[in-house]
């Protein structure tokens, strides 16, 4: 017996139960017919009495059903051959004679073997008709219509079963594809988070390390301040990386203690940038108000990545962060007075990540040369009010003055006199890091 390309057993229940049920019906029907015929004989009947050969032919169908999962067309052929031989030899038409054949036909059509199943049915009908004509026995033409109707109903039932199973499998595949798409989107989001965190903090550490090396001999106290800033930045980096990598592992040793970054931490971010040697000013237009979490995080990360690119590539002297709070949107602009994009430069990972982050919340982001010089990043982020009854946050007191590079935030862990928000008093020298091609990897 040639098996299908993918033979499969449907489990013990699905393999044995149909065959046992058909076998019991066939046995019960044949026994009932034999008892009834013995009690009420029909003198004018031409049918042969049930004997051992008839019992074997009746049992062939249920036995063939046991192996239908190996090759459904072969199982259907065996069942059809048993029925043809049974009727061709002249045995009586008992009730459950074609039960095994019907189950095999529906199973073959449902498995997608409908063309070969129909060929087996047509060949079986042709052989049985030719056998009856050659043997000189009458052909039951009145029964041809009901038989054909039953065959059509069986084929239609198998086809409907197949369609239902295919739709179920398609829905399952669609759900699995959606799950994979969601997982890919989450991995992309985490990758963007890692890029932002690593880019900002490593750039800050690199600048402060350069300051410490430059001033190690001439100004040890200032070098100590730079090393303190390196310690604080590395600690923040490790904390954020531990939280993000915990998501990738699917476990977290402990719940994160730091809140999700947002514009409420923007002043601390700008202080870090100023401490790294880039004067930056913040302008706020409109009344600041609570933003949706996704918009708040996206705005913070866009500012963070833009300022990181400015420090790395722009050779800028100053930068300006402008926040415009509208009724249903936040317009965010980051300008610098640096060299601007290099001719022929392509967008790097940073700009691509910022655009994807803005697009993920329904916003837009453009980046290119500034209106006069330098580089500009402009984002429009939809931010509908979360709750009309919510009180707006504290109003900004207006544009901050341009802060010259110098003060470094003191580390509370190392300076007992430093409290939250306090800063050191030592003026920091600025050691810019000039890239080979300005703006090539924003």
| Oligomeric state of shown chains | single chain
Q: Major beta sheet, specifics?
A: 5 strands, mixed
Taking all Cα atoms into account, the compactness measure Rg is 41 Å
Order of helices and strands: HHHHHHHHEHEEHEE
Helical content class: 40-55%
Rounded mean pLDDT is 75
What is the general shape?
A: rod-shaped
Number of helices: 10
Q: Which strands sit side by side, in order, in the main sheet?
A: 1-2-3-5-4
Q: Which spans of ≥5 residues are poorly predicted at pLDDT below 50?
A: 1-10, 251-256, 388-441
Portion in strands: 5-15%
Structural class: alpha+beta
Distance between the termini: 66 Å
- Beta strand count: 5
How is this structure best described in words?
The structure is a single chain. β4 and β5 (375-382) form a beta hairpin. It is built from ten helices and five strands; from the N terminus they run ααααααααβαββαββ. Helix content is 54%, strand content 8%. α3 (72-88) packs parallel to α5 (114-135). The model is unreliable at 1-10, 251-256 and 388-441 (pLDDT under 50). It has helices at 11-39, 52-65, 72-88, 99-110, 114-135, 144-215, 220-249, 266-275, 293-314, 349-360; strands at 280-285, 319-325, 329-336, 364-369, 375-382. The protein has 442 residues and is an alpha+beta fold. The two termini are 66 Å apart. The protein has a five-stranded mixed sheet with strand order 1-2-3-5-4, with helices on one face. The protein is rod-shaped.
